[in-house]
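Hi both,

Apologies for the delay on this - the queue was longer than expected. I finally got the pyridoxal-5'-phosphate-bound model through. Below you'll find the protein sequence and the ligand SMILES exactly as submitted, and right after that the structure tokens for the full complex including the ligand.
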Amino acid sequence: MNFDEVFERKQTNSMKWDLLKERYQSEDLWPMWVADMDFQAPQPVLDAMRQVVDHGIFGYHARPDSLREVTAGWLKKRFKWEVQKEDFVFTPGVVPAISHLIKTFTAKGDQVIIQTPVYYPFYSLIKNSERTLVKNPLKETDDGFVMDLDDLEEKMKAGARMLLLCSPHNPIGRVWKKEELRKVGELAEKYNVLVVSDEIHADLILKGEHVPFAKVNNDLDVSVITCMAPSKTFNLAALQLSYVIFQDSEDRTSYEKHLSNEFVGIDNPFATVAAEAAYLHGEPWLEALLEYIKGNVELVKQDIETNMPKIKVVEPEGTYLIWLDFREFGMSGLELQEWLRKEGNLALSDGHIFGPEGSGFARMNLACPRSHVEEGLRRLNQAYNSYKVK
Ligand SMILES: Cc1ncc(COP(=O)(O)O)c(C=O)c1O
């Protein structure tokens, strides 16, 4: 485990490295945008995948029961959460899983709540399926961003059918506390709102602990469906394996039926062995990764606090993403991004794509070697100083 090691990703069909020109009209930008890691997956994962290659036969794959057992074992170990192996439905990614959840459990026109600014595909998932998007913007307080529970209650009371929760929250980096999740659970029970909890970042906790929404609200009469995956945790996104966890067997059957009608569900053998190897043998790698990410966060914080005081850091409690607040510069979302690209040669994720509440912010990906973060900071300083000079 040497997270300092630099791997060439250019010309490997990497979105983060090879789509810069297409997206930003320049290949020279320093990529700290797309949320994947510039680290190799844990060694046991690579070994398991190599065995599949050596076998060399890639015919139709039957997902083994062991994947359910191993996944349940991981959830028990990491979150003390007991999930029965039949409660899992495997899906080819969390975003498609949510799209199918929306289609299975809501009707056209139904209101779906999101807590903005939020992972931007949530917007299109709701709009593309012709549901009504309802926003419950996060509230900024002296203690950072929190949920606006009064507003959430209003929105639920007004007839929302589903809440799409992001826990931990991307891009803010909040790891929601048990008490916050409990209050949401109580509201969902009161107004009969189905909660779909996207917990893809659950393993990436830097401060505090992740509490599965379903676990903390277990005793309430509330419908909860949880989406998780090994993809963010172990850098396996391209293998397209995720899973949905149901509390209610009838809901699960409806969803399975929907997926079967849509012909969704065949896995590939790489994803299966990678997920099993990661969950069985990847924990030491994950623990070391989290320490490394904390070091990257610290580096960014210190440099910004010392040298770029007009930028404010929203310190992440979870995820490997850091939310940077440039609002003091008074630029529009577009101006800010153009400035970062032109003066810093830096590709961060534009804050405004997460919703208008994200305007004036940018998201920086810290799942990369320290030298990569240092170069990113050098470029950020360059942009910052060009601004001061003007
Ligand atoms: C909250 C959240 N959900 C889902 C995804 C993507 O999931 P997948 O690649 O499994 O579709 C991401 C990726 O950044 C994310 O941040």
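Main takeaway for now: The mean pLDDT is 96.

I'll put the files on the shared drive as well.

H.
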